[in-house]
Amino acid sequence: MAGKKISRREFIVGSAIGTAGAVTFGGGLARAAMMGGMGGGGMGGSGSGTINPPPGAPFREPPEMVNLSSTPGIVEVALEAKPAPVSVNGTTATLLTYNGSYPAPTIRARRGDLLRIHFQNNLPDLGTNILGHDRSITNLHTHGLHVSPAGISDNMMRMFMPGGDGLYEYDLMKQEAGTLNFYHPHLHGNVAEQYWGGMAGALVIEDETPLLSGFDEKLLILKDITLSGAAPAPYTSMMDYMHGKEGNTVMVNGQVNPVLPIRPGQVQRWRIVNASNARFYHLSLEGHTFQVIGTEGGLLDRPYPLTKFLLSPGERVDLLVKATSRTGAYRLLALPYARQGMMSSPTITLLTMQCGGAAANDAIPSVINPDARRIAMNTAALTKRSLTLSMGQGRGYINGISFEGMDHAFMIDSELGTYEVWEITNGSGMDHPFHQHVNPCQVLSVTGGDAGYASFLTTAPAWKDTVLVPKWGKVTMLVPVIDYGGTAMFHCHIIEHEDIGMMGVWMIGGGMM
User: Fold this and answer.
1) Is the preceding peptide bond at 370 cis, omega within 30 degrees of 0?
2) Which residue among 82, 199, 233, 302 has its CA within the 20 to 30 Å range from the CA of 268?
3) Domain tally for the chain?
């Protein structure tokens, strides 16, 4: 069925308005909690309980990438993949890093910039993993950028051998401002181990609105890891891939329960990335309400007050937090969540917000982005896609096909300048966060899963590149196909599931590699 042609202006503007403790478990996890460690998870966790390490060091931001260019409109950075010693909750371990930092340095740019990344693969010979892939080969994906998937842009067909280097170049002319993206490897079969080992960092496209400029901005990278001696715990069985790895040390910006200061009545902006392989974060802040102002694809029309917010792997959220007038300590928590079966993860303290000092009188803006809209159209004539996610026999599948390469993958051919409706069905008993490259979507409906998650995404004018498809559930989304042709990907963002084949190929405009 032919797609409906649209212009860039029609895509952006659309036609509709947006709407408005005690440890109660045993074994190693309990010992980790008593020692001030973090943990839990694997297969959804170890049941009920609380992991509440003592408040740690002062909150620190990830390091900022230095712009090597002095030319206005050009951001030029050097990015090196290499092992480096890192302190993990007081233990020095050799992790896989970008530029020796965990998490990786933050790249900042603006809409309209030309972003150049000089990439160097200095990973040593790491041998072959249990899937049969050379662990030392890598590449780069700018997760969330609306850029070309071809040439030297966000091209997943490129790869770098150890010692190899090359230039990535991204034209941000059509990228939305105010977006929170991130970067990580994306070479099939190697992604999970490199990502688990530390290779991920934020990529921020700055705002163009003065409404948010007066608020202190905090970037929170949520990432977990388990160490085996002085190295990331290895992948030793197919169960690691089938389940997805969850670490026994959960950190914010590489810190266990850092202390973030805030003044009574002050408003801060928290921009949060779930950079964990498989861990879900059902976020809640004691005594406070989140004001959600943005998702992956940009800023919302107004703040959306929510007491809880679910963030699956690969998802991001942009929040305003207004501190209470009462001084004291308030914990940012990951609440129990069952991503598989009925067993929930424990409650985990992620961060302590310490409220004190001279009072402020900051106000939450009533409007954030007046141009944000939900797209309303008659979808009857649009091209429909049906994708079913499933698992079995050590493999992940989309429509019964497990990705093994460009000659063995489920493929979609799309025409530029159209909308499509994608219906993603989860045929397994485990949640799958679904990520499509190049073009963000708007969610039309969600069947199953967390009711608050579904309600927010089907009412707010939120653009999403990663959407949680609940176990035995379904998501229907409106997907614009605009601006860029080429070979892109879509896959589960439990990273291990992508590595074992839950990935497909998106040929846009009959695109070239």
Assistant:
1) no
2) 199
3) 3
